[in-house]
Amino acid sequence: MALTTVLRSLSVVLVLALALAGKVMAQSVLIPSPPQIAGSSYVLMDPKSGRIIMEENSNERLPPASLTKMMTAYIVERELDEGRISMSDMVPISVKAWKTEGSRTFVQEGTEVSVEDLLKGVIIQSGNDASVALAEFVAGSEGAFVDIMNQQAQLLGMKDTSFVNATGLPSEDHYSTAYDLALLARAIINDYPENYPLYAEKHFTYNNIRQPNRNSLLWRDDSVDGLKTGHTEEAGYCLVASAKREDTRFIAVVMGTSSSQARAQEVQKMLNYGFRYYESERLFRSGQELMEARIWGGQADQVSVGLTEDVFVTIPRGSRNQLESTVDLDSVIKAPINVGDELGRVKVSLSGTVLVDEPVLALTEVPEGGLFKRLWDAIKLFFVQLFQ
């Protein structure tokens, strides 16, 4: 690495270390083992950083029951976001939708219902009839909608998920995992925040029938604002819940508990543990300049480097002062440079464990310099490398 680059890297490392660590190093933070959870599988995730705080059998394929409807709702929300449908669109109710068994919104065959009411029916009431009606409206048939569900699952990284229907009714080839469902919840929260408040609504009335949200944590914990319950004989009692306290949010998933009370109790234990001992920190902002790097042979001698996305970490509470960071730039950076070109990496670690390993990118463009500039820089670079 060129001497000038070394010096600049060291200076940035020092700046970042001071920003992240402060002047006084704190003592090690002591954290107890996670609580025991009575469920077939479970996971606790920070949706900002993606870090898993606790898990057991989180990649085991299990029937997801009505947790399936999170994907049904997500696809509808995507269609809304992209302008292909609107909340006020009226959806014709087919005989198939009307006759779908299980939990219901009580829509009537031959009528038309707004997308907004059907979406609330899916999210709040867990209506199987509303799920089928929306699937048919979006894709023409429930089967075609299922194809979209499985494609979307792969795009979200849900590698151990297979959908057969839009409702979660039992089927041998219909399965998911606690981890995959946490990924889906993370996408719902992050991708379409304008619709996320629907998951916190406690009641919805349609056809003069008022039904409560089955997520009892909405009444017991003010920080809980979603997401979905599920239950079949095959799946047991399942729950995906999310809560936010101050600037930290967690997603908790539990599958295969013994009762509706048990799923709420086990998820509450997971959330309380996460908030008690961990916190989410944003270390770098999107577009934040970390440093200026030396450019050779360009119209300018410096290029601004940083990150194009926010970077979060999940750390034990009180351990921010122990974070350590380094920036390692390419030894020689030559023009032309385009916005987004990778020029090195930034790493942040805690007690020897790397929490962040992200590329640092060019934030500005540096075109190639003229012939004389390129020749002059080549001569200077030769001597810099000769004496490094």
From TrEMBL:
UniProt cross-references to Pfam families, sorted A to Z: PBP5_C (PF07943), Peptidase_S11 (PF00768)
Domain Peptidase S11 D-Ala-D-Ala carboxypeptidase A C-terminal: 278-368
EC number of this enzyme: 3.4.16.4
Keywords on record: Carboxypeptidase, Cell shape, Cell wall biogenesis/degradation, Hydrolase, Peptidoglycan synthesis, Protease, Signal
GO biological process: cell wall organization; peptidoglycan biosynthetic process; proteolysis; regulation of cell shape
Amino-acid positions noted as binding substrate in the UniProt annotation, renumbered to this chain: K228
Biological or metabolic pathway of the protein: Cell wall biogenesis; peptidoglycan biosynthesis
Molecular function terms, GO-annotated: serine-type D-Ala-D-Ala carboxypeptidase activity
Catalytic activity: Preferential cleavage: (Ac)2-L-Lys-D-Ala-|-D-Ala. Also transpeptidation of peptidyl-alanyl moieties that are N-acyl substituents of D-alanine
Active-site residues from the entry: S66 (acyl-ester intermediate), K69 (proton acceptor), S126
First-level EC class: hydrolase
PANTHER family: D-ALANYL-D-ALANINE CARBOXYPEPTIDASE, TRAFFICKING PROTEIN PARTICLE COMPLEX SUBUNIT 12
Stated family: Belongs to the peptidase S11 family.
Task performed by this protein: Removes C-terminal D-alanyl residues from sugar-peptide cell wall precursors.
Name of this protein: serine-type D-Ala-D-Ala carboxypeptidase
Organism: Marinobacter pelagius
